[in-house]
Amino acid sequence: MAAVRSLSKFFSLRSFSTTTKRAYADQMSFTFAAGNQVYYEAKSVKQVDVPSFSGSFGILPAHVPTLAVLKPGVVSVYEDSGNVNKIFVSSGTVTINDDSSVQILAEEAHPVANIDVGTARDILSKAQSELSSATNDQARAEAEIAIEVGEALVKAAE
């Protein structure tokens, strides 16, 4: 029993020392890539705002380590220079690590400035038509996903 208490005390002290020794960086290393392009590769940025299924959230250098799924929407990157770069993502993942490094891997991503609102509305309209003509569960699910992306595209473009 004494050995169990000693072991328990060891792990408690070890957990405490790990927690207290953790140091946060003043800046974060940021990597953002999609299948079509690399947007940032180990660049230092001030803040990143991401759309997630658990709600949109901001990432600062002292952010707790996290793994999240991106939903369709706009990722806003606040660069050290003061510029804000807005990039639309269809889906993907965001990983925030202990060392304040952040990686975003998007299925597809495009700068918001390059999105044409008319084309975005056409994409949404086509997806809505596909939903109304869907004949099975798979076709309905695919159309609903396309509608979600289309609605986010229109919102980003407006």
Automatic annotation (TrEMBL):
Keywords: Acetylation, ATP synthesis, CF(1), Hydrogen ion transport, Ion transport, Membrane, Mitochondrion, Mitochondrion inner membrane, Transit peptide, Transport. Coiled coil: none annotated. InterPro entries: ATP_F1_dsu/esu_C_sf, ATP_synth_F1_dsu/esu, ATP_synth_F1_dsu/esu_N, ATPD_C_metazoa, ATPsynth_dsu/esu_N. One of its GO terms (cellular component) is mitochondrial inner membrane. The keyword Transit peptide applies. Residues 116-156 form the F1F0-ATP synthase delta subunit C-terminal domain. It is found in: Mitochondrion inner membrane. Belongs to the ATPase epsilon chain family. NCBIfam families: ATP_synt_epsi. Subunit delta, of the mitochondrial membrane ATP synthase complex (F(1)F(0) ATP synthase or Complex V) that produces ATP from ADP in the presence of a proton gradient across the membrane which is generated by electron transport complexes of the respiratory chain. ATP synthase complex consist of a soluble F(1) head domain - the catalytic core - and a membrane F(1) domain - the membrane proton channel. These two domains are linked by a central stalk rotating inside the F(1) region and a stationary peripheral stalk. This is ATP synthase F(1) complex subunit delta, mitochondrial.
